[in-house]
Write a structure and sequence with these properties.
Helices cover 34% and strands 30% of the residues. By secondary structure, the protein is an alpha+beta fold. The chain is elongated and about 70 Å long.
Length: 286
Amino acid sequence: MNNDILHRYIFDNVDVRGEIVQLENSYQEVLSAHTYPVAIERLIGELMAATSLLTATIKFNGDISVQLQGDGPVSLAVINGNNKQVLRGVARWNDDIADDASLQEMFGKGYMVITLTPDEGERYQGIVSLDHVNLAACLEEYFNQSEQLPTQIQLFANGKQAAGMLLQVLPSKSDQTDDFEHLAALTATIKAEELFTLDAEQVLHRLYHQEEVRLFDPVDVTFKCSCSYERSGAAIKTLSQHEVEAILAEDGKIEMDCEYCTAKYAFDAIDIAALYSGSHSSQSKQ
């Protein structure tokens, strides 16, 4: 059984759509690469759920990045995803953080940057401040600014499981305000434990048993790091050959560490020579 799935659903009688995402394995894989404080574990879960929900709203093939930055004890938290629902993420912090720390206590004066990078076409970037009550509220503000469509988001994470829901008005000639507010009030009653333990059909029945809802087939959500020997080599080649040879002379090899999954890629003198000559060398990953 896959514990990491995203469902889309629509209401047949009103122009409103929704999404449900439930994560477990992919969430644990992201957390396993680092020993995070409890508050950051929850934040990463919420960010993963949020990124999955956002990815499901884009209408192109490409990548999405949801990045939080600030001047507080947590300087960075980022989740990268793509239209295939493949996620990876990491956070950086430099001080003790209370288990129940709020978004502002973690990031201080911070902001969220959402970057959409289509495989074809121009990149789009939206920025909102982190001065709202929680991450979900910040994302609702993002949609208010960028899409100008009423949107409600629910996010939950407990260090083991993460989940989220998105409700959004579809572009329409008619006014959907009253219908959306009614459905949003129903959706707001969902509890974390329900999203962690019930399947999508049960959640929709629990919330909307008097509505006409159509649930679409699920999409798997997975963790996969995009680091590779080739990408590490390309990063080394951004340095001059003289600089690289000086590092080799001192250390005997060059190691590239992936911040996301902590994989290590080692390059010795033969590997470096192959890099700059354009020939291939065997991969060395630790």
